[in-house]
Amino acid sequence: MLKPAIEAHDIHHSFGDVVALDGLDLEVEEGTVFGLLGPNGAGKTTLVKVLATLLVPTSGRATVLGHDVVAEPLAVRRRIGLAGQFAAVDEELTGRENVEMVGRLYRLAPAEARKRAGELLERFGLTEAADRRVSTYSGGMRRRLDLGASLVGRPPVILLDEPTTGLDPRTRQELWNTIDELRRDGTTILLTTQYLDEADRLAQRIAVIDHGRVAAEGTALELKAMVGAEVLVVRVEPASTSDAVAVLADLCTGEEPIVDAAGGEIRLPVADPRASAEAVRRFDAHNLPLASIEVLQPSLDDVFLTLTGRPAEDQKEAA
Predict the structure, then answer these.
(1) How many domains does the chain have?
(2) H or E stretch including 179?
(3) So what's the pLDDT on residue 313?
(4) What is the mean pLDDT of residues 193-214?
């Protein structure tokens, strides 16, 4: 058994009357990527800030590599790297100066800080732009620089809060490859993301949080198994959606179908792929128009929809 690098037990945090974390429990094993999924306002960023010692929880206890985030904040900060949703870089400095500055904050000697900056700039494909002001960098370049700066001190734990949001596919893939390399080197990574394929691709374990609590946790396969053996996807004219749901409801093995009324799409987990034939018969019997029907393997999107009742795409973390 691998021991946990990150532990959170019964963490609560509120912003006035708004409850961001409501008794959240989490364990992240050393040397793994742990994916954290959740809808807008679920508490993902709040948890990252608690673990990074940027917020003090209202109650509960969290540790990083055995160090309490409240009682031992300096020890925690020495052991983590943090890259948030927005690149925390100084636009008036060059890329090299930004990374060297972080190295000096880690108390590296000037020569070592310069050496480390050169290594990281090369690793993230920024060598040619190293001596340009960051104000001339693209969004993807700034994000890579921010991630590189977070690695200056070779932290054993990295907190990545939606690191690929807004990046082009190529840059996103490059960051995925970097995250894979870091994990293979033994780094522990907590990754919050709005991209379900990202969690599926990178994370050894995934937690879905909603309303400040963990709604479900497991491997991607374990979470998908919660939905059912198959997912029946039916598309109709939006005006017929409510009638179609009434016809199909008892085929659903979950609590209820997931319905996009505006788009005329109904998704429901089913125990048998032959449910599609039964659905067609029912539509014929009730003289309902059917645009399309298909049976798919469950995805993390289906897990997310089943657990939270809303999709993850295009979410921006508010709390």
Answers:
(1) 2
(2) helix 169-184
(3) 53
(4) 89
